[in-house]
Amino acid sequence: MPETAQQLLKMIQDENIELIDLKFVDLYGIWQHCTFHKSLIEEDSFVNSGGVAFDGSSIRGWKAINASDMAMVPDPTTAWID
């Protein structure tokens, strides 16, 4: 499995992966996820960078529509092909 963002991006390309599903547990312990097209995942999407933007209002109980711009920062060492 990849250890760096560069290795993960190469794996995405080499394995012809089209969709990336980022998963996380919310503050209530509920498993959440957001699915992104591979074109939205770049090297600056990872740890110590800006992350991947998503709409927090689409997750029940999180944010109102007027305050819903959020970012998720994936850790490439936790990636696996499902």
Question: Could you give a short description of this structure?
Answer:
12% of the residues lie in helices and 27% in strands.
Topology summary:
Blueprint lengths: L4 H10 L4 E7 L5 E7 L14 E4 L13 E4 L10
Antiparallel strand pairs: 1-2, 3-4
Describe this structure in words.
The protein is of the alpha+beta class. The protein has one helix and four strands; from the N terminus they run αββββ. It has one helix spanning 5-14; strands at residues 19-25, 31-37, 52-55, 69-72. It has a two-stranded antiparallel ribbon. The radius of gyration is 13 Å and the shape is elongated.
Mean pLDDT across residues: 87
Low-confidence stretches: none
Query: How are strands sequenced across the largest beta sheet?
Result: 1-2
Count of discrete domains: 1
CATH superfamily: Glutamine synthetase, N-terminal domain
Could you list some keywords that capture this structure?
single chain; alpha+beta; 12% helix; elongated; two-stranded antiparallel sheet; 82 residues; two-stranded antiparallel ribbon; Ubiquitin-like (UB roll)
